[in-house]
Amino acid sequence: MKTVPETFGILVFDDRVMKARLSSKVYNAMKNTIDGGHRLDNAVADAVAEAMKEWAIEKGATHFTHWFQPMTGITAEKHDSFISPSPDGGVIMEFSGKELIKGEPDASSFPSGGLRATFEARGYTAWDPTSYAFIKDKTLCIPTAFCSYSGEALDKKTPLLRSMQALNKQALRVLKLFGNEEVSAVRTSVGPEQEYFLVDAEMAKKRPDLLFCGRTLFGSKPPKGQELDDHYFGVIKPRVQAYMNELNEELWKLGILAKTEHNEVAPAQHELAPIYSTTNVATDHNQLTMEIMQKIAKKHGLVCLLHEKPFAGVNGSGKHNNWSMATNTGVNLLTPGETPYENAQFLLFLCAVIQAVDDYQGLLRASVATAGNDHRLGANEAPPAVISMFLGDELTAILDAIEQDKPYEGTEKTVMKLGVHVLPKFVRDTTDRNRTSPFAFTGNKFEFRMLGSSNSIACANIMLNAAVAESLKQYADALEGKADFEGELHKLIKKTIKEHKRIIFNGNGYDDAWIKEATEERGLLNLRTTPDTQEVVIEKKSVDLLTSHKIMSETELRSRYEITLENYVKTVSIEAMTMIDMTKKLILPAIESYSTSVASSLAAKLSVVSELSGAYERKKLAKLSELEEQIDCALGALENTMVEIKTVDDIKTAAETIRDKVLPEMAELRLPCDEAEAMTAKSYWPMPTYDDLLFGVR
Ligand code: ADP
Ligand code: MG
């Protein structure tokens, strides 16, 4: 058996392979492209393509594909085989630089959110050499960006790369002010922690809601849930362990640094965290991870649920986006420094994030908005829909001291060095572990915890990078060319703290009192549902931000607004239709058969025992019949609304109808169904219940 170091990355055309297989001239040209963004000339592209093809064929690949991330949030690929006819009637395996660099998939069937109306349907994919090519299912996958012919981004990668560039540009300006001349690039890095559920595939098959919607639409609460917290970090069951082992192996072969795995709080819930990498690569890897998680699950007779809320009343799944900025010289800009001067730089970058999150809280919230995540945010296991930041007591006290020109009286480990430089020296705070904040500082990075488990991390990082780039730009504008740099810097930091401290909150984010304080006293946004969030996306402030940093054009932004709402409407509509179908075909008939059996037991008692017997059956029948009537009534209302909504053209109105009518009516229908489930004999219930699903994998 091979060791992990031997198999790690064997399916990746990574730096090791390039070094070994490319001439030094071609290799250096590739490196320049990857590190410095220089264009590749055709001869180099041809040489890289040839080496890639040879390598892929040796690994058993027969096809290649441009692998991209359309706005559906999942990945897309169109396979082409390497074969090309040869004059002697045989075939040769071919792959040119042209095919490597550019592809032309038919763009018309991907969502474009109105872009299609304005522009040509045709699109093209363009190689992203900063993310390594890899082999999946005998296919060489080339990570690419996906654009329309007129240049509009039709994917999530293009704006992500642009946002990284924008942040790089502004961060370099700021670093120069601190005398960092040797730094030539600043990159953002991300480590996404991925939560998921595993359920038995045979059971899942019997639940149309799991099959079509990835979440249960019915189900009464099991007698045992997560009350005992006995699942969290508990012993991993053998079947799950076998799954995790194979998952790790597959991810490692693809060069994905899967590092930790453990049980989560809810039964059947687990987490996988990779070691962090550059945002662009982390995004590609997270997409691949989600795909492979589902694929491996099938092999083990399991279904991997990535939905944010597969089970009502049980913790949902999120994705923690650990984010920071680092220089190409290896300095994490969010690490508190050793010297006052380093600390001043750290504090300025910290301020940039604080200001960014406060100024663009709506946009950040909007970037994680989906129908699924709406169920999770603000439930008792996930951050609320209000964005705030956790900094910890020590850092907050330092910011307070700066704001109020007071000496900083920290704990013993804190050393004050006011005077030499204007800012205090402090030691990083390692004690605080706030788990309820949507955006928490965790020592040398921020953890954005609002992302849903099925979200592509691209959207959140585009907005985060954009917002931080904007604060950095403002700082560079204010400080460049100033004679008294330190004085100006101090003033700037002080001003930023004063203006943006409302976003800092170190308390319990799950507390209702906080929501009241946040919205009523601090004026923070509470955008509870997806339709609530989307107006922010197209308001002038957002458009200005994204266009001025050349991350998205107004048209691109509008297309995303449309797609988010379209997805919301479609997702919930499918759920509603599935509910209607399940109610009619499974639930009502089950209640009927069970009632019939109760009725026959009643009849038997009446004839055998006495005419006054059967009180239990009578009560039960009456209740079941009452529930059936409630179900029928709720079903009728939902059916009517679903007919109505088909006539609504405007996407905003449709989304609002979903929020205000469809979702409440779905809840109304679920209630009596769940109640009926709780009183129906198990052998009559037509699908696995919550206990079966949550405790069924051993
Ligand atoms: P938690 O305590 O939140 O469960 P974990 O240790 O499970 O933390 O996960 C932390 C994640 O943060 C890992 O994916 C890790 O690689 C990532 N991480 C660590 N340092 C950085 C950094 N500088 N930038 C981005 N991500 C980071
Ligand atoms: Mg975490």
Structural class: alpha+beta
Distance N terminus to C terminus? 27 Å
Instruction: Pick out the low-confidence regions.
Output: 412-420
Oligomer: single chain
State which percent range the strand residues make up: 5-15%
> How many H/I helices?
24
Shape: globular
Mean pLDDT: 91
Count of DSSP E strands? 18
Q: Say which molecules are bound, naming each kind only once.
A: adenosine-5'-diphosphate, magnesium ion
Query: Helical amount among residues, as a percent range?
Result: 40-55%
> Sheet with the most strands?
9 strands, mixed
Task: From the alpha carbons, calculate the radius of gyration and give it in angstroms.
Answer: 28 Å
Task: Describe, in plain words, how this protein is organized in 3D.
It is a single chain. Strand 16, helix 15 and strand 17 (439-441) form a beta-alpha-beta unit. The strands form 3 sheets. Strands 10, 11, 12, 13, 14, 15, 16, 17 and 18 form a 9-stranded mixed beta sheet that branches. Strands 1, 2, 3, 6, 7, 8 and 9 form a 7-stranded mixed beta sheet that branches. Strands 4-5 form a two-stranded antiparallel ribbon. It is of the alpha+beta class. The chain is globular and about 100 Å long. Helix 12 (340-359) runs parallel beside helix 17 (485-500) and helix 19 runs antiparallel to helix 21. The protein is built from 24 helices and 18 strands. The structure holds adenosine-5'-diphosphate and magnesium ion (MG).
Which helices and strands appear, and what pairs or packs with what?
Layout: H1 4-7, E1 12-13, H2 15-21, H3 24-36, H4 42-58, E2 63-67, E3 79-81, E4 83-85, E5 91-93, H5 97-101, E6 102-103, H6 115-118, E7 123-127, E8 133-136, E9 139-148, H7 157-177, E10 186-200, H8 201-205, H9 208-213, H10 238-253, E11 258-263, E12 269-274, E13 277-278, H11 279-299, E14 302-305, E15 319-327, H12 340-359, H13 361-366, H14 371-376, E16 389-390, H15 393-403, E17 439-441, E18 446-448, H16 457-479, H17 485-500, H18 512-521, H19 530-538, H20 540-548, H21 554-608, H22 615-645, H23 651-679, H24 690-695
Parallel strand pairs: 2-9, 16-17
Antiparallel strand pairs: 1-8, 2-3, 4-5, 6-7, 7-9, 8-9, 10-12, 10-13, 10-14, 10-15, 11-12, 15-18, 17-18
The protein binds adenosine-5'-diphosphate and magnesium ion.
